Amino acid sequence: MTTAAPSPAPSSVPTARLSSPTVLLGVGLALEIFSGNWRYLHIPLGGDRILLVVGLVVLALGGVRVVSDRRLQFRPLHLVLLATGTYATVSALAAQTFSSSDARFALLDRLGLIPFLMFALAPLVFGTARQRNFLLAVLVATGAYLGVIAFLEGVGLTSLAIPSYIRNPNLGLHFGRARGPFLESAADGLSLYICGVAAAVGFKTWSTPRARALCVAVMGLSALGVVFTLTRAVWLAAVIGTLAAMVVTPRGRRLLVPTLVAAAIVVVAVVVLVPGLESKASNRFDDQLPIWDRYNTNSAAVRMVEARPLFGFGWQTFSTTGPDYMRLASNYPLTGAGNEVHNVFLSHAAELGIVGSLLWVCALLGAVGGAIVRRGPPELLPWRLGLVAIFVAFLVVASLGPLSYPFPNLLLWTWAGVTAAEHFLRPRASDDSRVAESSSRPRLAHDAADEDSRVASRGAHGAVPR
């Protein structure tokens, strides 16, 4: 990855007025942490979806000029995103699963049509320093909330968690571990990690002591929260993602060993000092059921790919078709029937076939991978390093679980759009014409005078100064 020296940080988080679409889409993104659980808050319609839709409507009615002085540049990658979304939608229609709300939400979030759209719009709505700082502030605030809730759950003070549905052991999964408003520990852990990375970017970008202190606090709470999730995939993702971001810069490589030692000491201290955590962590290490589920669902997905390699069985069909392709192994029991595939890539290959899964992989690598390796302005270097961390963590979790969580999926693609903004923006047509007019206009009197002075200088000194 090509890097450049970072530019001086702004003195503080800007407080100037932002456009409505930027605010609505940024806050709507943060409210995705409650996606799927709004009914427990007695809100019939998801607040996150309402804000996202309103933000898009305001952007469409007000025009692009409301949020940016530049316009989007169409790239072949946009065509790949469109082709991927269209292919998966047609697959759902052909498999007669489109009428299912689960299949439609999976199209929107897990594939996902909403992340594709946010990736395309992020250069516009989060393309300036002020807009990026607003997004950072939203993510740091979200990380602070998730970190506090995870801390309360981790130390046994779940009764203080807000909103109250988090305290209900009959809702969701993994009660007794940090699961936050997601009601699922892997979603909570990956989201905590991404918000912690956002806090690290804020620490690098902002310079006021109060803002930097808040970032440090959020990074610490996020790290503790990842431990309290007691989820092995998230632990592995956090370690590998952090190492990947550190090894790509000389300074990070120098700090690698001290960071690992400090992290190990902190984790051991937390496990020993928090009552009951050592026993819970030991039980998680010994728990074989998730591993058996992963073996069985992944093996069934491979058999489905072998049965229909090109176009698959259709979007969101594994839960009903997968059990027919499960086989009893000689060294572990048959479990996981009706569950999702515990590997996103195998899931897409089984349901969409090689054609559809390759389209999705090309879209992912083109959007996120392209944002990482493409040269950008120096002020976006912290965002690129952060994208390395969260992309690697995303790939680890995607290889070990279904990864059907709206918030981390949407945030990954939005982050990539922010990082790659310069590649997808260009001056407006009117600006281009003014530049062309300026370059082709007749020479003015003072231009002629400047030329005469250069000729005189050449005559006196033998050459034009360089």
Give short descriptive properties of this protein.
single chain; two-stranded antiparallel ribbon; 2 strands; 466 residues
Would you tell me the structural class of the helices and strands?
mainly alpha
For the biggest β-sheet, the strand order reads: 1-2
Number of helices: 20
Question: How would you spell out the order of helices and strands?
Answer: HHEHHHHHHHHHHHHHHHHEHH
Q: Low-confidence stretches at least 5 residues in length (pLDDT < 50)? A: 2-16, 432-466
Fold blueprint:
Elements: H1 20-30, H2 47-62, E1 70-72, H3 76-94, H4 101-111, H5 113-125, H6 129-154, H7 185-205, H8 209-228, H9 232-247, H10 250-254, H11 256-273, H12 277-286, H13 289-307, H14 318-321, H15 344-373, H16 381-400, H17 406-419, H18 421-424, E2 425-427, H19 429-440, H20 445-461
Antiparallel strand pairs: 1-2
Helix pairs in contact: 1-2, 1-6, 3-4, 3-15, 5-17, 6-7, 6-8, 7-8, 7-9, 7-16, 7-17, 9-16, 13-15, 15-16, 15-17, 16-17
